[in-house]
Specification:
This is GMP synthase [glutamine-hydrolyzing]. With about 270 residues, the protein is α/β, with parallel strands linked by helices. The chain has helices at about 5-15, 25-35, 40-70, 85-90, 125-135, 140, 160-180, 235-245; strands at about 75-80, 115, 190-205, 205-220, 230, 250-255. The structure holds xanthosine-5'-monophosphate.
Length: about 270
């Protein structure tokens, strides 16, 4: 998850929408399963499988509690899969190659016991946003930038460790905070900071540093199938870069990704 995301999601879903939510913190298990893994597709599969294992265990615990009081067992897993996730994960009716195994499409376990429901599976993001607006959902939810199923792990290139997660989260938080302060959040379809595990030389104070890089990504798109990089005002990029280098330990360089999709994709892995 992103920085503070569990608490924010809880606020939105429980406090604002009255949903009965149980949060399972399985971060140590995800990190243990990802240890030493660097291949993007392998990372995606491990995260998808771990997610379902945790989900089934939690569902069983709720089932057991329900059974004790005569309630119904849990049958379904509801996911917010969108059409681009489907197109890019499977090739159906034609030669479109698998680009990435989207966690919520091809990354799920084959022997999963829960039945899957994906009501948004044939909609694009702009259609989902319109639906949310029509249903009177909170603006903050409707305009929230998408976050990939496999989470921040695919925004940390190479091995995912607790320390790397902390760096990526902090940089991402600063980046999004500055975008919101500048009033640009809704003009951008998706923005995030990724951690590149390459080191470069720098200088902080009077000391030499040899630290990693943060890659900023921001795109404009309506369907997420193609995308253009967002043209930030240079002073804002300067401010973001300076804040990240000063406030995030272990980072001495910030780069801005100026690749469109295609040939790049929106996420780095
Ligand atoms: P890409 O990187 O393929 O991303 O250009 C297109 C959109 O899909 C999101 N994305 C995912 N969403 N599960 C999801 O629900 C996933 O596994 C996944 N991978 C990428 C990505 O954030 C972007 O909005």
């Amino acid at each position: 998850m992103r920085h503070n995301e569990c608490a924010d999601a809880k606020k939105m879903l429980v406090d604002k929408m009255g949903i009965n939510l149980k949060i399972a913190d399985a971060s140590d298990r995800f990190l243990a399963n990802l240890a030493g893994k660097t291949d993007p597709e392998q990372k995606r599969k491990i995260i998808g499988n771990t997610f379902i294992d945790v989900f089934e265990e939690e569902a069983k615990a709720i089932d057991d509690a329900c059974a004790a009081t005569g309630g119904q067992p849990i049958e379904f897993l509801l996911q917010g899969t969108l059409y681009p996730d489907v197109i890019e994960s499977i090739s159906f009716k034609g030669p479109s190659a698998t680009i990435k195994t989207h966690h919520n499409v091809g990354g799920l376990k084959e022997n999963m016991k829960l039945k899957l429901i994906e009501p948004l599976r044939e909609l694009f993001k702009d259609e989902v946003r319109e639906l949310g607006r029509l249903l009177g959902m909170d603006d903050e939810l409707v305009w929230r930038h998408p976050f990939p199923g496999p989470g921040i792990a695919i925004r940390i290139l190479g091995e995912v460790t607790k320390d790397q997660v902390a760096i990526a989260r902090k940089a991402d938080y600063i980046y999004i905070e500055e975008i919101k302060k500048a009033g640009l959040y809704r003009q951008i379809a998706q923005a995030y900071a990724a951690l590149l595990p390459v080191k470069a030389v720098g200088v902080k104070g009077d000391k030499r540093t040899y630290e990693q890089m943060i890659c900023l990504r921001a795109v404009e798109t309506s369907d997420f199938m193609t995308a253009d990089w967002f043209d930030f005002p240079a002073p804002l990029l300067k401010k973001i870069s300076s804040r990240i280098c000063n406030e995030v330990e272990g980072v001495n360089r910030v780069v801005y990704d100026i690749s469109s999709k295609p040939p790049a994709t929106i996420e780095l892995e």
